[in-house]
Amino acid sequence: MAPEGTTNGTSSAAPAANAMAGLQPLDPEEFRRHAHQMVDFVADYYKGIESFPVRSEVKPGYLRPLLPDVAPEQAESLDSILEDVRSHILPGVTHWQSPNFYAYFPSNSSTAGYLGEMLSGAINIVGFHWLASPAATELEMLMLDWVGRLLNLPEAFLHTGGTGGGVIQGTASEAVLVALLAARQKWVAKLTQGGDISQSEALSKLVVYTSDQAHSCVQKACMVAGIEKKNWRFLKTSFDTNFAIDPAVFEEAVKKDLEAGLVPAFLCATVGTTSSTAIDPLKALGTITQEHGMWMHVDAAYAGPACICPELRHHLDGVELVDSFCMNAHKWMLTNFDCSLLWVKDSKPLLDALSLQPEYLRNAASEASLVVDFKDWQLPLGRRFRSLKLWLVMRLYGANGIRAYLRKHIQLAAEFEELVRADERYEVLVPRTFALLCFRAKPPAGDPDNGRTLNATLLENVNKTGKLFFTHTVLDGVYTLRFCVGNSRTEREHVLAAWDVINQEAEKLLKGSA
Ligand SMILES: *Cc1c(COP(=O)(O)O)cnc(C)c1O
């Protein structure tokens, strides 16, 4: 604390004393007390989570009138803040951790994931390179090897394999961007080697392929990486292939681009698309990318974790032909957001694209190439100790526990599917592979908008009840309801209750239209 008399004589010591009236920044005993209070708050939140409407019902701009316009000058108490959380924040929360959440894809939380998050927050290092916290880098390498082995990824993708390895990114969006930057680096270096064309000319030739079902993050990666818009290819899919890429369509597009003097550079295939969990055929596509020296990335953000179950691993057949592979532990593997895992078969193009050695970070271990510096495998410099979350999840549940968890969701989705199939008022739109069901209420014959209004109204009416929350997509023009089982606490009774609510609302609608 500043001694008296150093305040320039303009203010008394009283405000300074007041300013210290709140918490000490990191006093261990104060931390213990407040953290216990927070843990109690969180446990009570989880206990009562089903009492909230799953989807928040607040109107845009609801919060500002409820909170002060300016930051408090004086310290406040945690009690008063938690009171505001209860009365002002929770009503504006959509409860992703509710067992009645079936929207989008899940964002898993678990006790293990939460504890790992706490520990990571407590240690709070910024592990940009090995020396900044050797344990952070080394545990991350080991965890990526652990999960890589569970997925039965080829040895080259592991840190023990020689050329490649895995890294934790924040999101699958960052993962595909990093992969594309590596591919871009590789291609531009190759094309400019002879000195005949400039970097920008080389860049303008690169073509990126993905399916029209790929996540929008592929498009964003193209925007950021400077791939010219005229060189983005969204390969057409349809009900005929269950929305997977037809390799013949890909091959034809590559051929056309080659004839036009362009350079097919990058393919992003998806295992488990966001709309309908379509699975692109990795083997057939990988054979084509290898033939042309293209970079192939696989986005398995949602479905990747399921492939640690031997009976589902075949969805990754062909992964030995690809250059990079991504799955989100934070979607469906019990690990709190964020924790997206990216593996590359060869780290050199990635390092060529993203390495820098500023003087203030130089150190003997890095210079002797004895260590991995993950700052060179990602966009930001700073990075959290996220591998702790994975480590706690893997140890507190075990691979078998995680498999049982995944299988339970798939089983519940299968039961939901049976209910839908047994009721002739509905139809399943594409075959179900994981724990997402795409279905709709059948429109009456000759319905002018092919069931769009009927199903959009049904969806909104169900969500308005607050008893569950699910969402929609459009598949080849068909308005589709998406029901994804994947919350940590969803049980059979929740799924059955959700089906009841959907039916009640459907009955009201169908009666109204009859
Ligand atoms: C959810 C999802 C993404 C985006 O994930 P982020 O980690 O939020 O970037 C990308 N691809 C697929 C297939 C997804 O399902």
TrEMBL record:
One Pfam family of this chain: Pyridoxal_deC
One Gene Ontology term from the biological process aspect of the record: carboxylic acid metabolic process
Cellular component aspect of the GO annotation: cytoplasm
Keyword Lyase belongs to the record: yes
N6-(pyridoxal phosphate)lysine sites (modified residues): 331
InterPro entries for this protein: Aromatic_deC, PyrdxlP-dep_de-COase, PyrdxlP-dep_Trfase, PyrdxlP-dep_Trfase_major, PyrdxlP-dep_Trfase_small, Pyridoxal-P_BS
Key words of the record: Decarboxylase, Lyase, Pyridoxal phosphate
Cofactor(s) the record lists: pyridoxal 5'-phosphate
GO molecular function, one term: carboxy-lyase activity
Record's keyword annotation contains Lyase: yes
Tree of life domain: Eukaryota
Similarity comment: Belongs to the group II decarboxylase family.
Annotated protein name in UniProt: Aromatic aldehyde synthase
Taxonomic path: Eukaryota, Viridiplantae, Streptophyta, Klebsormidiophyceae, Klebsormidiales
